[in-house]
Design goal:
Blueprint lengths: L2 E7 L4 E8 L1 H10 L7 H21 L3 E8 L4 E8 L4 E8 L9 H5 L6 E8 L9 E6 L11 H13 L3 E7 L4 E8 L7 E2 L2 E2 L1 H18 L3 H6 L2 H9 L4 E3 L6 E2 L5 H11 L1 H11 L2 E4 L6 E4 L1 H7 L15
Parallel strand pairs: 5-13
Antiparallel strand pairs: 1-2, 1-12, 2-9, 3-4, 3-6, 4-5, 6-7, 8-9, 10-11, 14-15
Amino acid sequence: MSELHKFIFEGLPVRGMLVRLTDSWREVLRRREALGPHPAPVRVLLGEMAAAGVLMQANIKFNGALVLQIFGDGPVKLAVAEIQPELTFRTTAKVVGEVGAGAMLEALLNVGGQGRCAITLDPQGRQPGQQPYQGVVPLHGDKKEPLQQVSQVLEHYMLQSEQLDTRLVLAANDEVAAGLLIQRLPVEGAGNLGGRKNEDDIGLSEAFNRIALLAATLTRDELLALEPQQILHRLFWEETLRVFEPDHPRFACTCSRERVQNMLRGLGREESDGLIAERGEVEVGCEFCGLQYRFDAVDVGELFTPVRDQPPGSAAVQ
């Protein structure tokens, strides 16, 4: 079963999370089969994004959807991971060109240097006029060098937007998508004192740097193969950890027939009827889960017929 483990370092302003998506990640890939599987590098990219998104959602405890998007000018136009507050997640990608074996982030989405990473926080029960929060960063670091890993992009994002030192280790294959997050917590009163750094602040920075260096020794193969308890012991056996009861992320899609009906209403009667005339029915597939929604001429007619004019027993959803 997929698990998310949260832990803190006793006596230090450092927290961590470790996620392993197993059955839930395999379910994502299984559903994608119906639409045609993504190339292996794209599957790795989406797995790392799913693991990172779950870690970030659990980290901020946001009452709404966290949407992680990477878009650019390579053979992959867009990659998306969406995570809900209860840690359900879904992913998709739009592939428009040939993906080379072993392609990394630059070759996938940042060929011409135009790639971007966006994190959107969309609150539940959003009020009229209320806009989601979105932060965007380029797929390069401060020295304008392209970043080759999702973990580097998100570390850069956290430092730029939240001013939080963060270390991320991510890995994915067709069986497991996993991630480790280590983050320094803000400490009240820490900072500059009379133009000199407070000694306690320096000590706390050194503690975080030590733990971050330990986290960086975790290899991709270890992250994918070892159980969470083994990973934490291997990395932090000299530290005092408090580990909390695990959460269980899972795959779930938010698509529905009602949402597709609303989309068709948005297209308008003329265009919807045109699709019926051309194809005999309207078929809409969810890019996240592969579920197909079909509407015949009667279904489409009901969508644009006021409720009072519909015959008894009509199945139209309003």
